[in-house]
Amino acid sequence: MGLQTQVPTNQYTALWSRLVGFDPEDFSRRFEAREFVRISLHRSTIHTVTARDCLRLRPMLEPVHQRPFRSALGKRLAGVELAAVVAEARALVEQEPRTFQALGRELTRRWPEHGIHDLAMVGRQLLPLVQVPPRGLWQRGGAAGHTTAQSWLGAELGEETAPDELVLRYLAAFGPASVKDAQSWSGLTRLREVFARLASRLREFRAPDGRVLYDLADAAVPDEDTPAPARFLPEFDNLFIGHHDRTRVISDEVRSRTFVGNRAYPVFLADGFIRGTWRIEKDRRGASATLALTALEPLSAGQRAELEREGAELLAFHTPDARHELRWTTD
To answer: Which tens digit of pLDDT belongs to each residue from 268-318?
Structure first.
């Protein structure tokens, strides 16, 4: 159901942590070949998805993208015919991919009384804009140029807007989960009626606090003692923002130290819970790289050893040609 990747390189860490034998060069080639795209979806944030899911999911998540126009943005654009701005923005980005700054600047030629940012936001929210390579390629970068999904993929968006498939696939990935969990993850509201509509395909559980949790009727539920291996995840990963109740993967104390204001930190998990942060430090020439680990909760000797083994592989993945070091730091 997509990887949250407003930081373009996040898709590589997220996939390396999930897939055995993940080849970033192969993924990068397939990304450049338009098999995958980065586009605003759940919660109106950038996600990496398959081309197929891009076309199917964006119509289901359209209400999330219309929401800003009911707030301050809508007031600042009062009197503007949004449909006309959208049509002009589409013509501009399909003419050539553009950054939001460039798009907004072009739109002010026709609507000079409004700001560059506000006009660009009309295109950003109301058009299915994908970020085109080289942004998002492995160990490469570039400005965030945008064009429409239809132009980039040579296909039209799906026609289904009801989020039933969205909910079913959410539960396949994150269940058992509550209605609020699904709403927090997607950014959609009023999903209770969708869960009710899908009742015959779901199974109910009770959380310790009495909340009703749902899962697919045929989903396997692992034993509570099933080992959970050490994992390293990028900032903003859906694992820990995919629920309204995040205590299933992170304590309130650790959460307060991994999300500070609008900033999030890459995290590591031990025994299935987020217990610290990590970062890779490189010298100017890239000749050496150090993985710095910060534990935010006490770790056993076994957990530290497992994290060090996994961390060494992460460091080798990101900096294969450098000398490697690993160190534990204090917060």
So the answer is: 999 999 999 999 999 888 799 999 999 999 999 999 999 999 999 999 999
**Strand blocks (E) in the chain:** 3-4, 36-40, 46-50, 129-131, 146-148, 202-206, 212-216, 231-233, 259-260, 263-264, 267-270, 273-282, 288-295, 323-329
311 backbone dihedrals φ, ψ, rounded to 5°: -65, -35
* DSSP state, residue 186: H
Q: Which of 225, 314, 228, 233 minimizes the C-alpha distance to 270?
A: 228
Given a contact cutoff of 8 angstroms between Cβ atoms, the answer to whether 43 and 64 are in contact is yes
Q: Answer for the pair 133, 155: CB distance below 8 angstroms, yes or no.
A: no
Give dist(CA 85, CA 59) in Å, integer: 19
Report the 10 Å Cβ neighbour count for 140: 13
Lowest mean pLDDT among 48-52, 240-244, 270-274: 240-244
Whole-prediction pTM? 0.93
**Residue 25 tokens, joined:** 């060069």
Q: What is the distance in angstroms between the CA of the first residue and the CA of the last residue of the chain?
A: 33
Q: Report residue 62 as tokens.
A: 């359209």
Bin 236: left if φ > 0, else alpha if -120 < ψ < 50, else beta. left
